[in-house]
Amino acid sequence: MQPQIVLLKEGTDTSQGKPQLVSNINACQMIVDAVRTTLGPRGMDKLIVDGNGKATISNDGATIMKLLEIVHPAAKTLVDIAKSQDAEVGDGTTSVVLLAGEFLKQVKPFVEEGVHPRIVIKAIRKALQLCMDKINQMAVRIEKQSKQEQRALLEKCAATAMSSKLIHQQKDFFSKVVVDCVLSLDELLPLNMIGIKKVTGGSLEESQLISGVAFKKTFSYAGFEMAPKSYAKCKIALLNIELELKAERDNAEIRVNNVKEYQKVVDAEWQILYNKLAKIHESGANVVLSKLPIGDVATQYFADRNMFCAGRVPDEDLKRTMKACGGAVMSTANDIDAKVLGLCEHFEERQVGGERFNLFQGCPNAKTSTLILRGGAEQFLEETERSLHDAIMIVRRTIKHDSVVAGGGAIEMALSKVLRDYSRTIAGKEQLLIAAIAKGLEIIPRQLCDNAGFDATNILNKLRQKHAQGGQWYGVDITKEDIADNFELCVWEPSIIKINALTAAAEAACMILSVDETIKSPKADAPPMAGGGMGMGRGMGRPM
């Protein structure tokens, strides 16, 4: 009798072969079912409550996937492609998960019947190449003769991105705001130069775009109300020092023999503080911003000299102010002079709803803008912020890649037709596999119909007929419960979204199909299994 050979640590779970591959595909299907209903203008929202009781309402695919905390190793692949789609182009996160899941669902019967996964992967890659060629051929480059025409294109792309969000009824208002926001940036369009601040109360239409840096008023000490709240052509000192030490950082001990020595220590402490404040005043600064607290003595000192100060400024806002206004964040008061000060045309503190905001406008160094959002519930404002982030990403991408395609399932139907036509020209297993992937692409228009409560089978039959007759831009028309030429209706999406989504979905499907064995190591803190550790499964477990 051959002795049993133990290769893996006790408690390791291994599964391999066809059942394991089918199990991975089924896990991905469960992920797809979780986000399926959020697609499109009539998509539903998800209410997710985390372990701390924080509620999030969202229909953004990447946000939902992030909050679900998925542990299945194969299903995590779909989470990763949703995150990468969000980071790369900002929109199409639900579509990319749906496409990957549907590709796997369509090829699952072939895997169960014994077709080798490598043949399936080859067919998916071939289909992807055909789709890429067709998108590049169909994509329309919009002629931008003037700034007005470019604006119109960008606003249409932003409106399409927001049509599936909570704020879809205000998409005309917000598409203008988003385009203004992105066009105010410099050529590289850095995302970190756009700030989004939320103020509860008021209506969405009361949201405003500030051309410059804006952040909420920070905690202030007594004497703050005496300082001026507005300057023209102001100079800004940016600090990373605590001007007035409110507590000891280290345990220090000073031994004194009499009152005079104690007085000398106190006087020296005051002198150090006043020297710091005098150097800041002598530099010519009107506004002092610090990442660390500014105490009451410093606040009153600055107020007496017509200077404004704010402590505990968030790091992100301090860095944005530095990039926009110039200057440098100083860690000592000794080297402060006119060279390290930032400049801006106008500074003021203004009331916005129930909050006060510090506004820096006319920043010379870098172009920046801040969106101040108004609205009711906090969850609603957070979802509005996520929606605007997606729209901003879309507008940035459209400026860099100005070719567009029609949305509403039109491009997916056109690609499906191309793959079907191609599959009829080839023989063997690949014909069936490419036809299956062509059917998988129809998930987008089908799901748009299902989410809107339409008869999906009827509308898809109409779409197949129109595309066969050469109507390549026909897709689902949500408002009329029918099909329409979505290019004429200006339902436009940047072609880069579709290229990215299809590439990521196909690669994720190929990766899951190429896994033939899953090995899960036991957790470090898991209790030992009964009777383990001896190779043949006999004997006592090793004492811990």
UniProtKB/TrEMBL annotation:
> What InterPro entries is this protein classified in?
Chap_CCT_eta (IPR012720), Chaperone_TCP-1 (IPR017998), Chaperonin_TCP-1_CS (IPR002194), Cpn60/GroEL/TCP-1 (IPR002423), GroEL-like_apical_dom_sf (IPR027409), GROEL-like_equatorial_sf (IPR027413), TCP-1-like_intermed_sf (IPR027410), TCP-1_chaperonin (IPR053374)
The UniProt GO MF terms for this protein read: ATP binding; ATP hydrolysis activity; ATP-dependent protein folding chaperone; unfolded protein binding
Does this entry carry the keyword Transcription?
Answer: no
Q: Where in the cell is it found?
A: Cytoplasm
Record has ATP-binding as a keyword: yes
| Family annotation (Gene3D superfamilies) | GroEL, GroEL-like equatorial domain, TCP-1-like chaperonin intermediate domain
The UniProt catalytic activity note for this protein reads: ATP + H2O = ADP + phosphate + H(+)
Regions of compositional bias (Gly residues) in chain numbering: 530-544
- Keyword annotations: ATP-binding, Chaperone, Cytoplasm, Nucleotide-binding
Q: Report the GO terms under cellular component.
A: chaperonin-containing T-complex
Give the region (Disordered) as residue ranges. Answer: 524-544
The principal location of this protein is cytoplasm
Concerning its family, UniProt says: Belongs to the TCP-1 chaperonin family.
Relate the assembly described in the record. Heterooligomeric complex of about 850 to 900 kDa that forms two stacked rings, 12 to 16 nm in diameter.
Query: What is this protein's function per UniProt?
Result: Molecular chaperone; assists the folding of proteins upon ATP hydrolysis. Known to play a role, in vitro, in the folding of actin and tubulin.
Q: Name the chain's protein.
A: T-complex protein 1 subunit eta
- Which organism is the protein's source? Drosophila busckii
The taxonomic lineage of its organism, from the top, reads: Eukaryota, Metazoa, Ecdysozoa, Arthropoda, Hexapoda
